[in-house]
Task: structure prediction
Amino acid sequence: MGVLHPLRRLSDRVNQVAIVLCIGCILAMLGISFTAFVYKLFTGSTLSWTYSLARLFLPWIGFLSMTISLRYGEHVAMTLLVRSLPRVLVQTAAGLCLAVIGLFALMLVWYGWGYFTNATQVYMVSDQIRIPSKFTAVVVPISGVIMLLHLVHGFALLEHFIDERAMIDELIETNDGESRS
Result:
């Protein structure tokens, strides 16, 4: 247990960095698109490179948001089916689910690293702007490593183990404690 606590804190910090990176990528895409809009508005012509540059951020947004959603338990789940099972089978199903997530993350790292090292193309955004494909390829193994790190949270990643009654009771107690003026 002494190792899990620091790893969970690291997982939470990495998750916060991933959130900031996703927001940064979205803002960069919006900034590029807004620049294209303003340029078109004032000059009447278009910038040829804005669309190509903006779409280079999509893999980062997609893969990093996948790790963020995993951390918050927002992933594909068959909640109704799992909750109808006895507790032992729920734990078995959850363990299998975590194993499949771990296998998927390992595959992202393994095959993603090969994809990254073999990425030799250069995206010709414009005559002056050239971006190596490694920029987009590196997010694949990075997201796999982040997913593996998030697995230290164990069953907390799965919504099957959220006690809804306790959460509802806590919300009711919070609202009862409010004073209205």
